[in-house]
Amino acid sequence: MPETTSTILTWITFIPFIGMVAVLCAPKQNLSLIKGICGIATFIPLVLATQVYFGSFQKGTSEFQLVHFAEWIPLMKINYHVGIDGLSLPLVWLTTLLLFIAIPASESVPRVSKGYYALLMLLEVGILGVFISLDYFLFYVFWEVMLLPMYFLIGIWGGPRREYAAIKFFLYTLAGSVLMLVAVIAMRLDTGTFSIPELVRIGGEGGFTGPALLGMKFTTWVFWFLYVAFAIKIPAFPFHTWLPDAHVEAPTPISVILAGILLKLGGYGLIRACFPIVPDAFTTFAFTLGVIGVIAIVYGAYVALGQSDFKKMVAYSSVSHMGFVLLGMAALTEWGMNGAALQMFNHGTSSAACFLVVGVIYDRAHHRDLNAFGGIAQSMPRYWALSTVAFFASLGLPGMAGFVSEFMTLVGSFQSADTRFQILVLISCVGVVLTAAYILWALQRVFLGPLNEKYKDYKDITAREVFSLAPLLILCILLGVAPFLLLDWMDSSIVQLMRQLGSSI
Amino acid sequence: MFALTDLHLEGFRLLSPEITLVTVSLVILVMDLLGRGRNMTAIALVSLGGLALTAFQLVAAFNDQPATAFGLVAVDKFGNFFKLFTCGALAVVIFFVMSDRREKSTHIGEYYFLLLGAGIGIFFMVGTNNLLLLVLGLELLSLSSYSLAGFHKGEKRSAEAAMKYIVFGGLSAGVMVYGVSLLYGLTGTLNLKVMAGVAGAVGEGHTVSLAAAVTDSPGAVAAAMVLILGGFSYKISVAPFHFWAPDVYEGAPTPVTTFLAVASKAAGFGALLRFIGVLFMSPGTQEAVAAYGLQVGQLVAVLAAVTMTIGNLAALRQESVKRMLAYSSVAHAGYILVGVVAMDKAGFDAAMLYLAAYYFMNLGAFGFLLYFHGVTGKETFESLNGMGYRAPLISISMVVFLISLTGLPPSVGFYGKMTLIYAAWDKGINWLIICLLINSVISLFYYVRVAKHLFLMKPSEETAQPQPAMTGFLVAMAGLTVVFGLWATPLLEWTSSSMDLLAAR
User: Fold this and answer.
1) Contact residues, B window 381-440, toward A, CB-based 8 Å cutoff
2) Which of the pair, B392 or A98, is modelled with greater confidence?
3) What's the structural domain count of chain B?
4) Torsion angle, alpha carbons of A41, A44, A50, A53, to 10
5) Which ipTM was obtained for this model?
6) 3-class DSSP assignment, residue B24
7) What is the pTM assigned to this prediction?
8) Residue B265 belongs to what domain range?
9) Alpha-helical runs (H) found in B36-155
10) d(CA B341, CA A265)
11) Calpha distance A119→A38 (Å, rounded)
C-alpha cells in the first residue's frame, strides 16, 4: 500500500471544485463577483502547481511523487491514489495555466452566465484528476466527469451548429470510454487490482492471463480497446472527425482548453495507461501506430490547406500536430519519446495561442472567412505581431518551441530500430512543408495585402486579450531556446517508460 | 378446536410488517367511507405513517435469522430488502399523488388503499418459497395495478391502459399458473427447496426433485420453465412480454406509472431472483438441478440481450418523455437480467445493486416528469424547451438522473452497471457485456435529448410555478444519486448481505 507523502495534488485538483460551489452560491446577476471567484479558484492551483514544479518535485527519479493514498471503496478494492511524475507534472501545470487564462478570455463569450463558469470549474477538476490519477478506476471517473461540462459548454455557448457538435463530441468520447471500461474491468478481474503502477508491473512481466476476445489474445485486445479510447481524444485518424466540428462551434476559451489540454489527455493516456501496461502488444503494433501518426500529419495539414474557415484551419492543424506525438511514441527511441512528450506540451501552448488569436479577430468581425479578411496588419499592428509569433510557433520555426519537439520526433523516428520508420519520416516531411504553406498563406490572407475598408476602424488587441495571450507566447519562445526547462523534468520518467516498453536503453 | 400455539405466535411475530400494512390499509378504507372524500390529507398521512411503521419493523428485524412463518412465508434478508424497497417506493408514490396537481379525483382514499394493497401483494410475492403463495401475491399486485392504471375513469387513455393491462396480465398470469401446475405435477410439491432437492427440505406426500423430473420428462420441465419465465417477463416487462408497458405507462396517471416502473418491477425481479436463486442455487441444491439452471440462464441471456436492444431502439424514436422513460425502463430490465444470467452470488448482488440504483434514478426521473406535466400539461420533448432556465434546480437534478441512467460516473447507476459487467465478465459471458455497452451508448442519445431540450433550446413562453416540496425531493434524490456514486460502500454492503439465499461458491 503506497504511503501518503503529500496532499497538495488533491488541493490543486479540488480547489476549482470549491470554486464551483462558491460560484453556484453567488447571486447570478453579480457576474464580476463570479469572475473574481473563478480567478481565485484557478489562480491558487496555478501557484501551487508552480510551487510543485520548481519546489517539491524531485528531478532525477522516476518514482511517483507527492502521492496521496486513501481507501475509497474497500469492497471493490478501489482506492483514491494520486501522484505525479515527470510525464504528468508539465501537463498538470499547463492545465492550471490554461484554465487561469480561460477566465479573462471568457469575457467575450456571448450570453456568458453563472452556469458557464461553474461548468468551467468542474471541467478543470475532471482534467486535473485524470492527470494525477494512479488508480484506473479513479482515472475513469475523472475521465467521464469531463464529458458533461464539455457537452454543455459547447452545446449552450457554442456557435450555430452547437448542438450537433456537442452531441458528436459526447458520443465519440463515450464510445471510447466504454471500450476503456471493458478493458479496465477485464484487467481488474485478471489481476485483482486497479492500480496503474501495479498493472504496469504485472503487464511488464507478462502476467496477464485473461481470455481472448473477438479472436485476439488478451493483451492484444486490451491494447486496441485502450488505444481507441485514447486515440479518439488525441484525435488520431480516423477518429478525428469530431474535432473540427467541436472546435468550430466551441467558444474561444473552450477551444483553447480543448486544443490545449483535452487532446493531451489522449496522448497522456497512451503513455501512462496503455502502452506500458501491454508493452508486447504495443511493440507489435508500433509501426501501425507510426503509419496512423503520419497519415494524421500529412492528411491534417493537407485538409487545413483547403479550409477557408480560420478556426477550422487551426483545428485541422491540431490533427496534424498531434500526429507527431503518435509517430514519436511509436518509434520507441528516447529522442522520439522525448519529442512526443515535448510536442504535447508545445502544442498545448501554440495551438491555444492560435485559437486565442482567431478569437480576437472573430470578436471584431463576427466571421472567420479567411478570404474575406485582408490588410488587418495596418489597422491592428500589435495584434499582427503577436499573431505572427503564435503561428510561427505552430509552424515550427527554428527558435520556437514547436521546432524543437518536431525535430526531436523526426530524428527519433529516423533512429528507430525498425527501418521502415525512415520512410515514414520522409513522408511526414511533406506534412511539414504543407504546414508552412497553410500557415503562411493564412497569415497572408488575413494580415497582408490591401486593407479591406470594413476593417479599417478595428481596435487593436486589448490589454485583456494580451494578458491571455502573452504567457503562451512567452512559453513558445522560452521552450524554443531552453527546452531543458521541460526535458530535465521529464527525463527520468521517459527513461523509465522506455524500460517498461522493453527498449534497451 | 383451534388453539393458538407458540408456533402461531412466532408466525404472527414474523409477519408483523405484513399485519401492519394490512391493518393500515383497512383503516384507510374505513376512513374513506366515513369521511366521504373530505379527509384526503389525513388519509395520505395515515398511509405514510403506516409505511413508516412497517419499514421500522422491517429494519428492526434486519439482523434476524431466516425463518419460515406458517410453513409458507419465508422471512429472510432477501425478502427484507425488497420489502423495504417497496415501502420506500410506495412512500414516494404517495408523495407524488399528493403533489400531483392534476389529480382531482374524489376517490383518493381508494387510490391509497389500492396502492397499499399492491404493496401487500408484493410483500407475499417476494417473501415466499412456495409457488402458490408467490402466484397469489403476484395476482394481488396485478389486480390492484389494473384498477390503478385505469384510475382516471373519464380519460380514454387511462381506460385503454387499464384494458390493455388486464388483457395482457390475465394472459400472462394464466401462462405462469400453467407452468407452476406443470412443475407441481412433475415434482408433487410447490416448495422450491423441495424441488431443488435440498437435503432436509421435505414436502408432504410423495415428492421428487426437479433432477428426477428432468430425466423423466425433459420436455415438460422445459415447457414449465418457459411458461413461468414468461409470467415473470410480463411483470418485469421483458421482451417479448413488454408490449403492454409503453401504452400502460403512458396512459396511467404518472404516480401509478412510477409505481409500475419502480415498485412493481422490483417486485417482479425479487420473485424471479428468488425463484431462480432458491431453485437452482440454494445451499444443497442437487448438482443436476444446478446444472439445469445454467441452461435456463442461457435462455435468460437471450431475453436480456433482446430486451435491452428493443427497449433502447424504441426509446430513440419517442416524442413523449413519458413513453421514452417507459421504453428506457424496458431496457433497464434487460440490464438487470444480465445479473441473473451470471447465475452466482456476484451476479445477483449486482442485480440488486442495480435495482437500488434504479430506485433513486427512476423515482427522480418520474418526479421530474410529474412536475413538468403539472406545469405545461404536456409530456413531449418540445414542451421541455428551455425549462432549464425556469426551474434550474429541478432540471439540474434531472441531468444527474440522466447521467445515472446512462451509467456514467460519478453516479450510483454507474456502479450498478459496473458490477453487472463485473459479474458477467467473471462468467465469461462477453457477448452480453458488449451488447450491454453498445446499448449504453445508444441510450445516451435519448437521455441527452432531454438535457438538450432543457438547456440548449430556446425557452417557450410558459412559466414554471415553484413547487418547493417536489424541488426538495428531486434535489435530495439527485444528491443521493451522486453521494452513492462517490461512496457506494453502504449500498454494496447492504445488497451483498441481503443476498442470503444462495450457496457460497
Assistant:
1) 399, 403, 408-410, 414, 418, 421-422, 425-426, 428, 430, 433-434, 437, 440
2) A98
3) 1
4) -80
5) 0.87
6) helix
7) 0.91
8) 6-498
9) 40-60, 77-99, 108-126, 131-149
10) 36
11) 11
